[in-house]
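Task card 7
Instruction: Convert sequence to structure tokens.
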Amino acid sequence: MNVADRIQSLRKSKGISQEEFADQIGVSRQTVSKWESEQSIPDIDKIIVMSDYFEVTTDYILKGIEPQKSAKREPLNANVFVAASTFWNFIGLTAAIAYWFERQTSMAFVIGLGAMAMGVLCFSIGIAFSTQNVEKAKRLFWIINIWILVFIPLSFIFNSFFTGFIAPLGLIAPYPMFWYLNIHPIYAFPMFWALYFAICITVVLIQVKIKRKL
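Output:
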């Protein structure tokens, strides 16, 4: 296929006559007829006008070279990172509790917060590169993960307040040391859970409210 054939093929793909095409390009019908019958070749400025009109490259009109199609990038769904970060956070909490139950060392505290930091980092990076469901994923992340992320920090505060002076090691326990009820008030147990649920439910309600406003 030569230049004449490509011009004719592009014109016919548009479903227009030589006269209509000539009007669009700014030439006479006879000029278009000469192009398509190989009696003449369009000037470069007309080639450029045609490339814009037919939405092809000038290389295609002159040489028949098709533009290389770039690989289509699949949209990145942010919900994938919600699942990944939730996994990290859950593993961090359970691993910290299990390690503390066996060893009672500060490493349990480090393991728990370290894994949760990885989970939050994973989600933050994922959100930055995601193109689908970003806002929905943010709300879903907090609705689910607030129940995990707040547990160890709140346990630290609880243990610091109620057992820190008597059982210093309990400061770094990843869960509230309820078995020390004999050394702190009876209201300590319900206080922890009341505060825990209050924080989590408040965050969940805020996210639900944000969703309703959208």
